[in-house]
Amino acid sequence: MAQKELVEPLGIEWVPPAKRHGKPTQLFSLWFSANLGMPAWLVGVLGPVLGLNLMQTIIAVILGNIIASVLVGLTAKAGSGQGLAQLPLSRSIFGRRGNYLPAFLNTLSAIGWYTVNTAVGGEALARLFNWPLALGLLVVAVGQIALGYLGYDVIHRFEHIMVYVQGLLFVLMTYEAVRHFSYLPYVHGGSYGVFLLELAAVVSYSFSWSTYASDYGRYLPENTSGRHVFWSTFWGTFLGTLWVELVGGVVGALGWGNLSPVSMVQHLMGPLTGFALVAIVFGTMTADAVNGYTATLSALTLDIPVRRAYAAVFLGAVGSLVAWMANAHLLADYENFLLILSYWVAPWVGIVLVAAARGIITKDQALSRRGVDFAALGAFIIGILAVIPFMSTTWFEGPVAKILDNGDTGYYAGIIVGSLAYSVLSRRRGRSASSRSVSGL
Q1: Residues 250, 90 contacting (CB under 8 angstroms)
Q2: Is the residue at 63 inside a domain?
Q3: For residue 318, with 0-12 CB atoms within 10 Å meaning exposed, 13-18 middle and 19 or more buried, which class applies?
Q4: Is residue 3 classed as helix, strand or coil in its secondary structure?
Q5: Is residue 353 classed as helix, strand or coil in its secondary structure?
Q6: Could you tell me the sign of the dihedral formed by the alpha carbons of 253, 66, 209, 281, in that order?
Q7: How many domains is the chain partitioned into structurally?
Q8: pLDDT digits (tens, 9 = 90+) for 47-101
Q9: Do the domain assignments include residue 10?
């Protein structure tokens, strides 16, 4: 059995067989734990805020999480036994330099969500102990940076422990939510456009983990079952997110959606607020352990010559500093920016699924490809452009979204167009290469 080291020595290098260890079941605990936090809670709150009744919100949450969890599971399965993290592995599709664009976008997205989560967790810790906000942010930041510095094995252990700690705390929050059912006002159902918008929010939250998926199984043995990787990832993502978003839906239906995340929790929990604040702090750390680690691996995929542990400290410090400097308005604008930015994940997922079906995603390809795969990069850009008419955000609304009563279908368009464009462009490239080969005989 491979010996586990306290500080992970590897960066984005291929993990040799001698260092492989673990079982697919650890992916369940990691994804379940990482989703037990305020970001998923707020996605559930959003449904009633937009105008849905509780039943419509529940349907959107269930359907959206099925779609998203399947996508996260499939991208995790694509990396089974390869010994590489997700963005380094996608060099097999885009080429080493062609992969810089998705790697940069993933770094920006991951460290961005790290920042937003840190702001929420720091506020919760400050309220819990009546500390100044700066001190709450500092303590949360130190814990998260330490997890990022130590790396893969420590993060897995932490997430496994948090399954039980967070699980108990969210049982209390669920109990309080059920107790408030009698206070729920009657609300007429919202329009189909609003339903599509909430469905898009649910899908976008969970399936944005797709670009992280193989990061947390890269040390699994080479003979690890792809099927087991899929189901462990699927159920961890689905059950953790579903649970928290359903509780959030109840809170939104109670009419508290205009409050800050911490204030919502205080209204729900009353004298048990202290337990809920602990849940927020731990939820911040479980999510940001994953955000910070993935941001580090994605940054290294840009061929930045720095050790993984040092990069983790630097990126964690930057994210924490921005969280401290930002005011509430800036954080709201920043979160809108991140939501818009996440549209790039859709065409990337579509391309990855096609490449996986063709057997293109291999560690040998990822380690040997040097240049730019213009078919993949072109399809990626086409997919991003195709999303724009379908977008419905506070900053921009596309023409198709207006026709759909403000409904957002951009993520589905991105996946479909990205995958089709890659299928067409890569096949055309293959035919051109074959023609050149024949003409040279």
Answers
A1: no
A2: yes
A3: middle
A4: coil
A5: helix
A6: positive
A7: 1
A8: 998 899 999 999 999 999 999 999 999 999 999 999 999 999 999 999 999 999 9
A9: no
- Low-confidence stretches of the chain (pLDDT < 50) are 1, 432-441
Residue with tokens 């899908």: 203
* Residue 8 belongs to a domain: no
pLDDT at 330: 56
Please give the angle made by the CA atoms of 260, 72 and 113, to the nearest 5 degrees. Answer: 30
Cα–Cα distances (Å) from 398 to 141, 345, 385, 421, in that order, read 38, 18, 11, 21
Q: In sequence order, what DSSP letters do the residues of 215-278 get, joined into one string?
A: GGSTTS-TT--HHHHHHHHHHHHHHHHHHHHHHHHHHHHTT-TTS-HHHHHHHHHGGGHHHHHH
- Distance from C-alpha of 210 to C-alpha of 342, rounded to nearest angstrom: 11
Residue appearing with tokens 């009419």? 255
**What pLDDT is stored for residue 338 in this prediction?**
60
12 falls within a domain:
no
Token pair recorded at residue 259: 């409050």
DSSP category for residue 397: B
Task: List CB contacts of 191: < 8 A, sequence separation 6 or more.
Answer: 51, 405
Query: Which CATH number is 430's domain given?
Result: 1.10.4160.10
In this structure, what are the phi and psi dihedrals at residue 79, rounded to the nearest 5 degrees? -100, 5
C-alpha to C-alpha distance for 332 and 310, rounded to whole angstroms: 30
Nearest of 338, 343, 425 to residue 384 by alpha carbon? 343
Q: How far apart are alpha carbons 430 and 441 in whole angstroms?
A: 17
Q: Kind and range of the H or E element at 98?
A: none
What's the domain range around 205? Answer: 17-439
Beta bridge partners, 392, equal: 397
- Residue 2 is predicted with a pLDDT of 62
Where helices occur in 326-409 by DSSP H, the ranges are 328-341, 345-357, 363-368, 374-387, 399-403
Residues 177, 183, 189, 192: is their CA dihedral positive or negative? negative
The closest alpha carbon to 101, from 302, 350, 268, belongs to 302
In angstroms, the CA 329 to CA 327 distance is 6
